[in-house]
Amino acid sequence: MSTLKVENLTGITSGANANKIIVPSGQTLDASAATLVPSAGAVIQVAHTTGTYNKGFTSNDTYSSTSYVDVTGALLTITPNFANSKIFITSTNQIYITEDSNNAWRGANLKIVRIVGGTETDVSDDESGYGESMYTEDNSQRYMTYVTRHAIDSPNTTSAVSYRVRVASKLGHNILMNKNSYGSGGHLIAMEIKV
C-alpha cells in the first residue's frame, strides 16, 4: 500500500464542483484508524440509559429523604474525546407525589451530579428548594407528572465521566419515581458537543 502525504487538500475554484473534494461512488474514505476533528458545535457521541420494551429505566422505589439520594437506574457514563468538549445532559423522570398532610407544600427536588474519579460535582439542581411541587389543601390530593432537567457541563477531561440523578423530598413525604406501572419510565442522555 502506498502513502500520500499532504498538509492541505483543496478543490478547484471553478466549475460545477467548485471548492469540493469528492470521493467517487463505490469508494470508501476509511478514517477508522485516524482521529477526525469535527467542526465546533458538532455532536461527537451520545450516551443514554437503556430500559426494557422501549421504555426508560423503571423502579418501584419510594423516596422520602429530605437529603438527596440516588434515583434508581439514573446513571450513565460517557468518555469525552476532547478535554474541552461540552456535555449536554437531559434527564426526564416520571414523578408521583403521594397523598400526605393537608395545607402543606409537597415536592421533589432534583439534581444532576457529575462523578469523575470518585469526585462528585453538582451540575444542576433545584436551588429554590421547591423543585417540582404542589400545595395541597386536602390530604387525599396527589400529583403525577414528567419532569425534565437540562444541564451543560464542562468536565475538562478525557477520562470516563458519570452522571447521576438524585432526588430529595421537600418535607419528607413519599415520592415514587419512574414506577413501571405508572408511565414510560425515566431517561438520561448525555451528548458530547465539540467546542
Structure description:
Strand 5 (104-116) and strand 6 (119-125) form a beta hairpin. The chain has a single domain, classed as Jelly Rolls (Sandwich). It has 195 residues and is mainly beta. Strands 1, 2, 4, 8, 10 and 11 form a 6-stranded antiparallel β-sheet that branches. Strands 3, 5, 6, 7 and 9 form a 5-stranded antiparallel β-sheet that branches. It is elongated, with a radius of gyration of 23 Å. Helices cover 0% and strands 44% of the residues.
List keywords for this structure.
single chain, 195 residues, mainly beta, 6-stranded antiparallel sheet, 5-stranded antiparallel sheet, elongated
Q: Nutshell version of this structure?
A:
The protein has strands spanning 43-48, 62-63, 69-78, 86-97, 104-116, 119-125, 132-136, 143-153, 161-169, 175-177, 187-193.
Give the uncertain stretches in residue-range form. none
The count of helical stretches stands at 0
Give the biggest beta sheet: 6 strands, antiparallel
Structural class by SSE content: mainly beta
Q: What is the CATH architecture term?
A: Sandwich
Quote the average pLDDT.
90
Question: How much helicity do the residues have?
Answer: under 10%
N-to-C series of helices and strands: EEEEEEEEEEE
| Euclidean distance between termini CA atoms | 35 Å
Q: Please give the radius of gyration in angstroms.
A: 23 Å
The total number of structural domains is 1
- Give the overall silhouette: elongated
CATH topology: Jelly Rolls
Name of the CATH first level: Mainly Beta
Q: Strand portion, in percent?
A: 35-45%
Number of separate strands? 11
